[in-house]
Amino acid sequence: MNVIEQLEREQQKEKVPALRAGDTVRVHAKVVEGTRERIQVFEGTVIRVTGGGLRRNFTVRRVTHGVGVERTFMIHSPRIDKVDVLRHGDVRQGRLYYLRGKVGREARIRERRSLVREAEPAPAVVAAPESEEEEEA
Fold first, then answer.
1. Which of 62, 65, 76, 97 could be bridged to 44 by S-S, CB 3.0 to 4.6 A?
2. Is 115 helix (H, G, I), strand (E, B) or coil?
3. Distance between CA 38 and CA 20 in Å, rounded?
4. Helix, strand, or coil here: 66?
């Protein structure tokens, strides 16, 4: 095994959410201010996911007070406390840079709805007779 691969495996997080462009996420990032450390929440739409392995990152965009704000986060960074996926968006492209030119209702993304099947009851298991003598009786 390569030394670099081994170091990367040690630094990777175990539970990483499956992110795609168009998802709405809430990122809890640790921010250091002087000697204090606090968690800052950044909520927005994922406009791109790039890289692979330890170098995987994603960019989140939101509009605050009429100004578009984009932040890029490394998914395996120790500065990221957690990432909550609020909803999955239904988009056709991997990069949503066109959202930069859209405002308000134009910038909406449909929600991806997967088929949710109700749990079917398990069929009743009938015990098969073990020997031929029990079948005759």
1. 62
2. coil
3. 27
4. coil
Q: Tell me the whole-structure pTM to 2 decimals.
A: 0.75
Under 8 Å between Cβ of 44 and 25? yes
Residue 111, both tokens? 């929600």
Among 45, 56, 27, which Cα is nearest to 89's?
A: 45
- Measured at the CA of 46, the angle between CA 109 and CA 116, to 5 degrees, comes to 60
List the beta bridge partners of residue 33.
36
pLDDT, one tens digit per residue, over 3-56 is 988 888 888 888 888 899 999 999 999 999 999 999 999 999 999 999 988 899
In the chain, the amino acid numbered 100 is R
Q: How many C-beta neighbours within 10 Å does residue 75 have?
A: 20
Phi first, then psi, for residue 106 (nearest 5°) are -65, -30
